Design the sequence.
């Protein structure tokens, strides 16, 4: 696979080519995903649940993300790799710069941080130092206590407008990509149309530039209830390789997520 860069992803946004992304946490899966043609991999702090068995992402430490980023990068040398900064690892600029250095040195192309307005200064500081930053708004799992659980966000007009404002503000501050999680399809469509950076959706309908899924959801091996927006691609594919190919194909053709998997 050719090396995927941020300008490639920006071109896809311009030419309206949809792309698939997936989480990975180790060498074997990242190699398999990259061999099937996945252009973007996220070392998500979802590893707190999928790998470490916690009930939330909050216990994840920066050293965990470093460890998994190094392993994933070895399996996917040409994939565009983003890694999460975990809970409380970006509470101020100094801490953020220190931790970002660790993650970029581990092999990530971009770091992802959750939140809105309060991140403006931090995003500016990172961008001024040529660090690629991905924002993450909507359902932000690191704030699940504050949000009273894992719920759809942006349903009423005020909340929707707040998310639109945050998306603009973050783009203006310097983010180069945005993840929108669990927001209504129409709102995700509006944010995607109004930003010039690629917008990746999860549980946010099919009208974003890209889609992302947690690998365990896509393969139907998540402990407990699989989120209603996640499709088990393995059950109808027969092998992990075919499931990934089908996921890529359905995202690129705008088949997944259809109505059944959207809000
Ligand atoms: O940690 C993660 O896996 C994520 C995705 C759900 C986007 O942030």
Sequence:
């Amino acid at each position: 696979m050719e090396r995927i860069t941020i300008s490639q992803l920006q071109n896809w946004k311009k030419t309206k080519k949809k792309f698939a992304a997936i989480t990975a946490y180790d060498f074997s899966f990242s190699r398999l995903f990259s061999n099937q043609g996945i252009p973007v991999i996220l070392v998500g702090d979802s590893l707190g649940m999928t790998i470490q068995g916690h009930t939330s992402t909050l216990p994840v430490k920066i050293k965990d993300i470093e460890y998994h980023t190094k392993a994933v990068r070895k399996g996917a040398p040409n994939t565009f790799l983003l890694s999460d900064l975990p809970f409380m690892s970006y509470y101020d600029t100094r801490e953020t710069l220190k931790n970002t250095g660790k993650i970029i040195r581990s092999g990530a192309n971009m770091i992802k941080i959750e939140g809105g307005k309060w991140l403006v200064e931090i995003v500016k500081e990172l961008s001024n130092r040529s660090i690629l930053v991905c924002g993450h708004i909507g359902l932000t799992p690191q704030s699940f206590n504050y949000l009273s659980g894992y719920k759809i966000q942006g349903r009423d007009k005020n909340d929707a407008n707040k998310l639109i404002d945050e998306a603009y503000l973050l783009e203006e501050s310097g983010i180069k990509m945005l993840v929108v999680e669990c927001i209504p399809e129409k709102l995700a469509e509006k944010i995607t149309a109004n930003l010039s950076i690629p917008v990746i959706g999860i549980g946010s309908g099919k009208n974003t530039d890209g889609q992302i899924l947690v690998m365990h959801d896509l393969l139907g091996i998540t402990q407990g209830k699989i989120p209603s927006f996640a499709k088990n691609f393995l059950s109808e594919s027969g092998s992990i390789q075919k499931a990934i190919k089908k996921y890529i194909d359905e995202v690129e053709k705008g088949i997944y997520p259809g109505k059944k998997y959207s809000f």
